[in-house]
Amino acid sequence: MSTAKCSSEEEELELSERTSAEAMEISRRSFVTAASVIGTAFATGLPALAEEQDRHVAAASTPQTFAIETTINGITHKLTLDTRTTLLDALREHLDLTGTKKGCDHGQCGSCTVLVNGRRVNSCLTLAATISGAQVTTIEGLAQGDTLSPVQAAFLEHDGFQCGYCTPGQICSATALIEENSKGQLSQVSWDSGRVHPGASVDLSDDEIRERMSGNICRCAAYPNIVAAVRAASGRAGVAS
Ligand code: FES
Ligand code: FES
């Protein structure tokens, strides 16, 4: 190996080492620059961002309220409620009317049924905001003093319950059912039976009763007695059909 070649290799090696060192220096400088940018952002931008986020969280958790005036079981109530309050919670939590029961809280069991302007509704699916000015009747409002309503009396007479949890909803529903039929409102069974007289009430057969009470579930399966009670309350005494 000649002396000239050896010296050229050493120069190449030296050049390569210098280039690596410079590259490392550039990379170190880039890191310091980036760190300083991030530090500045922390010092200026991020607190503002955090404040904005805090404002959003506070706004979301601050209840928005509304005022309603409604008549429940003949008594006028003025309430100021969170906009998200359901009629069921307004009754139970704000008015202490705990006869209306919370079962599924999803509109599937009917235990929360009450009457709004005579129409049965699932109070768990009804926002209290929508009943301002309405007449609401709950299980507590059906009796006249110590005199039970015909449906209540029929449920007692026919033993239409076991644990009783679904019973307030069943009774409110049956009360509306009898009223709906007296106004000639039909069900699917009315059409299927072919006994339809438009505008007139239909014979409340047991199939009619089952169909019209199908939104009210009884986990004790007291159905035969519930049907018997509704049959009796509707004035149709006698044998099941
Ligand atoms: Fe309302 Fe079940 S609690 S339908
Ligand atoms: Fe128990 Fe109906 S009587 S759920």
Work out the strand percent.
5-15%
Strand order of the largest sheet: 2-1-5-3-4
Instruction: Give the count of structural domains.
Output: 3
In helices, the fraction of residues equals 40-55%
Largest sheet: 5 strands, mixed
Number of beta-strand segments: 5
CATH class of the largest domain: Mainly Alpha
Ends: how far apart? 118 Å
CATH architectural type of the largest domain: Orthogonal Bundle
H-E order: HHEEHEEEHHHHH
Q: Could you name the ranges where pLDDT drops below 50 across 5 or more consecutive residues?
A: none
Classify the fold: give the CATH topology of the largest domain: DNA polymerase, domain 1
**Sheet/helix structural class:** alpha+beta
Cα Rg: 37 Å
The overall average pLDDT, rounded, is 86
- Enumerate how many helices there are, as a single number: 8
Which small-molecule ligands are present, each listed once?
A: FE2/S2 (inorganic) cluster
Question: What is the CATH superfamily of the largest domain?
Answer: [2Fe-2S]-binding domain
Shape designation: elongated
